[in-house]
Amino acid sequence: MVTEGQQTASAPDAARTFPKGFLWGSATASYQVEGAAAEDGRTPSIWDTYARTPGRVRNGDTGDIATDHYHRWREDVALMAELGLGAYRFSLAWPRIQPTGRGPAVQKGLDFYRRLVDELLDKGIQPVATLYHWDLPQELEDAGGWPARATAERFAEYTALAADALGDRVRTWTTLNEPWCSAFLGYGSGVHAPGRTEPVAALRAAHHLNLAHGLAVQALRDRVRADAQCSVTLNFHHVRPLTDGDADADAVRRIDGLANRVFTGPMLQGAYPEDVLKDTAALTDWSFVRDGDLRQIHQPLDFLGVNYYTPTLVSDADGGASHTSDGHGRSEHSPWPGADRVAFHQPPGDTTAMGWAVDPTGLYDLLRRLASDFPRTPLVITENGAAFDDYADPAGQVNDPARIAYLRGHLAAVHQAVVDGADVRGYFLWSLLDNFEWAHGYSKRFGAVYVDYPTGRRIPKASARWYSEVVRTGVLPGA
C-alpha cells in the first residue's frame, strides 16, 4: 500500500535520500506482455483487431505472443524479487476475464491473476492492479465502444467481477490507464485502437471513460478490503508556450484543457472546465453528459497516478493547426478536437528513440502544479522511462547509459519536488520488460530487462541493476 512517508530533509547530506516508506516499483500492461491471445477463453480485444489490420502496426507485429508473460510469470516475478522491487503495477486483460464484455467471468482468466498476485505477495511485492490498459473486448467496440454510454456500465460490471475475485489480495487499484490515449488517439487521430477518426466520438469517449472511472471506484469501494486504495492514472501533458505572447498562452490553455483538465475537472473537482466546453462547442453541445453523471464521476481517490515522459511545446497557428510534432504518431486526423489554431513543436535537447525530448524539468514543474492544484491528493509516478536502441553485446550484456542518465535526471526532479512540498509517495519505472509498444510493435525498447524476442530470454540491463540499487538504498547517486 502507498503509505505516507516523512518529509525529506533539505540538508546537503540528505539531499538525495527519498522519504521513508517511498514505494519503488515497475510496470507493464496486459496486451504488451501477456501473449496467449487465444488461450483459456480469451477473445480478441480492440488491439488484437487493430494489430491485425494491415498498415496499422510496424512490421505487422501483434501481441499474440508478446513477452509470453502468461506462461513465464514465475520467472518474471523472480526477476522483480531479484531487483528488490517493492511493487508491481500490472493490468488485467478485460477479454481474458470477461471475453464478450458481458456476463460471468471466465475462471481460468481470473486464476491467472490469482496465481500472479499470490506469487507477488509471497515474494513481498505489492500488487498494483490496473483495470483497464486499453484492451477493450472487441464485442463492446462492435456495439459502439467508448463513445457509447453502455460501455461505461459494462466496465462497472467487469470491475465488480475483478474485485470479487481479487479484492481480498489486492490493496491498490487503478481504474483507467491514460484515458486520454483511449479517447483521443483511439477515436480522434486513429493511431491507436480501434483506429476511428471521429472528433465528436473522441469527446463522447472521454466522457464515458470518466463515467466508467467513477462507476468503477464505487464498485471497488463496495467490494474490496477496507484498507484498499483507489486511483486513476493520467498521462499528463506538461504544456509550454513557444513564446511569451498571449496567443501562445491561449494555445497552452486549449491543449491543457483537452489533455489534462477534461479529466481532472470531473474526476477531482466535479465539473467540466467551462473553457473546454466553449472550445468544443462547434463540435458538440455535450448533451451526452446526463444529470447525475458528474456526481458519479467525482469520487474520492486515495492518490493520483502520474505518467510523464516529455514536455509538450505549442504555439498559436495562424495558418491552421499542426499536430505532427505532438509526439503521438502521424495521422491526417488530429487528436485535438477544438484546437484548430494550435501548432506543436519539437522541444529542444536530446531525444529518446521515440523522438521525445529528454527534459526532467517538465516532470518537476508538473508535480509542483499538481501539488498546488490538488493539495489534498497524494501523487504517485505510475510511469516514467525511455526507449533507446538497446542490444545485447557478444558477452550477453546490455549496457544502456542513456537510460540511466534519463532515470537519474527524472528521479532527481521527483526528489526536488518532494523537498519543495509535493506529496509524491512512489515511483514506477516503465517498463519492467521490453514489450509490444503499440503501433511501434517491437521496434522500441522501454524495458529495464532486455527481451530476446525469438527465444524469450530475459537479460537485466545495466539500468536495471542501477535502479535496483536506488530501490535498495532509497538514495539517488550523483552523476
From TrEMBL:
What the entry lists under PROSITE patterns is as follows:
GLYCOSYL_HYDROL_F1_1, GLYCOSYL_HYDROL_F1_2
| EC number(s) stated in the UniProt entry for this protein | 3.2.1.21
Task: Extract the ranges annotated as region (Disordered).
Answer: 317-341
Gene3D superfamilies membership = Glycosidases
Keyword Protein transport recorded: no
> Which top EC class is given?
hydrolase
Q: Name one GO molecular function term.
A: beta-galactosidase activity
What range does the record give for the signal peptide? none
User: Which Pfam family name is an example for this entry?
Assistant: Glyco_hydro_1
Keyword Hydrolase (UniProt): yes
Which catalytic reaction applies to this protein? Hydrolysis of terminal, non-reducing beta-D-glucosyl residues with release of beta-D-glucose
Alphabetized UniProt keyword annotations: Carbohydrate metabolism, Cellulose degradation, Glycosidase, Hydrolase, Polysaccharide degradation
Q: Which InterPro entries match?
A: GH, GH_1_N_CS, Glyco_hydro_1, Glyco_hydro_1_AS, Glyco_hydro_1_beta-glucosidase
Protein name in the entry: Beta-glucosidase
Which organism is this entry from?
Streptomyces viridosporus T7A
